[in-house]
Design a protein that fits this description.
Blueprint: H1 12-26, E1 30-34, H2 40-47, E2 54-59, H3 69-76, H4 79-86, E3 89-94, H5 100-107, E4 112-117, H6 123-133, E5 137-146, H7 160-169, E6 177-180, E7 189-193
Parallel strand pairs: 1-2, 1-4, 2-3, 4-5
Antiparallel strand pairs: 5-7, 6-7
Helix pairs in contact: 2-4
C-alpha cells in the first residue's frame, strides 16, 4: 500500500492492526471519525473502504505550536481528491464533537458501523464523546479510541488512558474489548464492539 501522503500521528503497527483485524472485516458503509487533524487515519479509512462508503470527519481546526492552522488546512485540501479517487462519500464537519447541536447533526447520519475517536484528550471530553456517539453505533459495530496506553504522568497531559482503564474496570464496555498496544505507556488503541441484541 502507498505510504500516507500526510502526517499520520499513530503508531503504524497499531493502526494497521486495527485496520486488518477490525476495519476490513467489518466492511463498514457508515464511518465517523472524531479528530482527523491532517487526515492520516482518514486516508487509511478511505483507502480501505468499499466504493459508496460514507465517511464523516468531525474536527476543529487547531492553531498552536504543535499544529499550525496553515499546515492543517494545506493537508485537508487533499481530502476531496482521495475520496473522489476511492469513490467514497466524504463529509467534512468543522466543530466541537461535545456540542449538542453538532452531535444532533451527526445523529441524522447514524447509525454507524465504525467510529474512531481521537479528538479531545481530557477525561471529560472523551467521556462525553463516548456518551454521545456510542449510542449511534450499530449493534455489532466497532468504536475505537486512540491514546489509551498513556499513564496519567505524561508530558502531553493526555487523560484518555486513565478514562479507558476506569471504564474498563467498571465493566462499562461490556465483554468484547480489545487493546492494541505496541509500547506500554504510549499511544494504544482501545476497541469496543457493540453487543448484538437478540
Amino acid at each position: 500500500m502507498t505510504d500516507c501522503p500526510v502526517k499520520l500521528l499513530q503508531d503504524h503497527w497499531e493502526i494497521e492492526k486495527l485496520i486488518t483485524d477490525f476495519y476490513i472485516p467489518l466492511k463498514p458503509r457508515m464511518v465517523l471519525e472524531i479528530g482527523s487533524l491532517y487526515g492520516g487515519t482518514l486516508w487509511k479509512w478511505i483507502q480501505n473502504s468499499e466504493r459508496g462508503t460514507k465517511i464523516i470527519s468531525l474536527d476543529l481546526i487547531p492553531d498552536n505550536e504543535l499544529h499550525s492552522m496553515e499546515d492543517v488546512l494545506e493537508a485537508r485540501r487533499l481530502w476531496a481528491t482521495w475520496a473522489n479517487r476511492a469513490g467514497v462519500d466524504l463529509v467534512k464537519m468543522t466543530g466541537n464533537s461535545n456540542e449538542y447541536e453538532i452531535s444532533k447533526w451527526v445523529k441524522t447520519c447514524a447509525p454507524f458501523d465504525f467510529i474512531f475517536v481521537d479528538g479531545g484528550h481530557d477525561q471529560k471530553t472523551v467521556h462525553t464523546d463516548w456518551n454521545l456517539y456510542f449510542p449511534m453505533l450499530k449493534d455489532g459495530g466497532v468504536i475505537a479510541f486512540h491514546d489509551i496506553a498513556f499513564d496519567l504522568e505524561n508530558k502531553f497531559c493526555i487523560e484518555v488512558g486513565v478514562w479507558w482503564r476506569q471504564m474498563k474496570e467498571a465493566g462499562m464496555f461490556g465483554d468484547d474489548v480489545t487493546e492494541i498496544i505496541r509500547t506500554s505507556g504510549d499511544n494504544g488503541i482501545g476497541v469496543v464492539r457493540k453487543e448484538i441484541k437478540s
